[in-house]
Amino acid sequence: MANEPDYLDETPSQTAGPYIHIGTVPNFLGIEGVYAEDLGARMIDDQTRGERITITGRVLDGVGAPLRDAIVEIWQPDAAGLFPSPEERRGTADPHFAGWGRSACDLDTGLFRFETIRPGRVPLPDGRLQAPHVNFWIAARGVNVALHTRMYFPDEEAANAEDPILARLMAEGRGDTLVAKKAEGGFHFEIRLQGHGETVFFDL
Amino acid sequence: MTDDDTPRVQGSFYPRRRDDWHPPALAPQYRSSTLRAPRRALISIPQSWGEITGPVFGQNMLGELDNDLLRNFARPGESPIGERIIVHGRVLDQNARPVPGVLVEIWQANAGGRYRHRKDGYTAPLDPNFAGLGRTITDAEGRYEFRTIRPGPYPWPNGPNDWRPSHIHFSLFGSGFAQRLVTQMYFEGDPLIERCPIVNTIPDPAAVDMLVARLDMNASLPMDALAWRFDIVLRGRRSTWFENRPEGN
């Protein structure tokens, strides 16, 4: 058929399995000398603009047990709402901000941790402003396609109320699953994969 | 100069085929998914800057041996035990265009099927000359290449006698965070592929086939290493004329 659209199919996903640390955070695992440092370990330096925050959290399974073999990545804009990416066309992001971070969940406690800054606001395609939020990505054994979610801030009430995505989820009774709790030095975000209070995950 | 020199940029990604192509979240034959699969439907949201942008990684962050698993952990003058192989291919998008600048990270078991990981208790020994990790960044034509050993199959606690086929784990970044992909590569002809509960989380045999690398004699090195070809397709994206927002016209 001459006019048949001929797009390729995407390579299918497979679980990251229990040993993802080897390939992504070898130094964390104790494999030293292959890479100088683990990627995504540092998001900020002394000159990064914006309010320093620490984000900690856990990923919980269907019986509330923390995953101790997951890798969590975040992707967020700088304090002005700009992403440090060549695809960013609205301006130039803070050169002292990586935007992307990667943290293994602690092999004993399951805690992940990011030292970052509070993100600025980013518009939707239609121009409406979203509330400040951090994009999350979770890969682990038992997760067949890595999961996308986002974390909002509990002290951004006004912005949260006008965020079109969060407002819709609040109306459906699930928005609270995306709002972190205040914690010492920053925020704590619990991600529930399944069951009561299941976190909202996105099909981007 | 054309009459319209507005830069042409990339727009939103095509939807993922989650119903009949990617594995479902819950696949009971893969036991680990039962307590870790979200039970609620995923929520679709518009792709904005946070989804169509992503981190970039420059060639200058790579060490000389990062894609050479034969040498990046071995003691001087020694090398790991196992079949020496080359794994190579191209990273394309669904529009069949090469994707340059993609960070490709891999990890794998050694020739005996053992991972260098404190949670792996399989009887097969560690290889003092093999760590099982590598990384590279695709070139302008989307090409990547690794040198490694063929990983061994190994048993795992799932069903009463489940074995993983030989496989290499892949993690890829595209140009946008929504393109992020983790998958596994298998070896053509391995009889364990069709018996694997993790492979079989994928519903369509044509999708499984995309994960099966082919023996590539032309790329092999005589008297040295066999080559396996594994092309990877990331989500495609729309082109759009940039105005002041990701979805232009």
What's the structural blueprint in terms of helices and strands?
The complex is a heterodimer of chains A (204) and B (249).
Chain A lengths: L19 H5 L1 H4 L22 E9 L10 E5 L24 E5 L7 E6 L15 E7 L7 E6 L4 H6 L1 H8 L9 E3 L2 E7 L9 E2 L1
Parallel strand pairs in A: 1-8
Antiparallel strand pairs in A: 1-4, 2-3, 2-5, 5-6, 7-8
Chain B lengths: L7 E6 L29 E2 L4 H4 L31 E10 L9 E6 L24 E5 L5 E7 L4 E3 L5 E3 L2 E6 L8 E7 L17 H5 L2 E4 L10 E4 L2 E3 L2 E5 L8
Parallel strand pairs in B: 3-12, 3-13, 10-11
Antiparallel strand pairs in B: 1-14, 3-6, 4-5, 4-9, 7-8, 9-10, 11-12
- Largest sheet of chain B at a glance? 9 strands, mixed
Please summarize the sheet with the most strands of chain A. Answer: 4 strands, mixed
Question: What is the mean predicted local confidence, pLDDT of chain B?
Answer: 93
Low-confidence parts of chain A lasting 5 or more residues at pLDDT below 50? none
Distance between the termini of chain A: 31 Å
SS element count, helices of chain A? 4
- Following the backbone from N to C, one meets helices and strands of chain A in this order, namely HHEEEEEEHHEEE
- CATH fold annotation of chain B: Protocatechuate 3,4-Dioxygenase, subunit A
Q: For the CA atoms, what is the radius of gyration of chain A?
A: 18 Å
Gross morphology of chain B is globular
CATH homologous superfamily (4th level) name of chain A = Aromatic compound dioxygenase
| CATH level-four homologous superfamily name of chain B | Aromatic compound dioxygenase
* CATH class assignment of chain B: Mainly Beta
Q: What is the name of the CATH class of chain A?
A: Mainly Beta
- Domain tally of chain B: 1
Mean pLDDT of chain A: 97
> Could you tell me the number of beta strands of chain B?
14
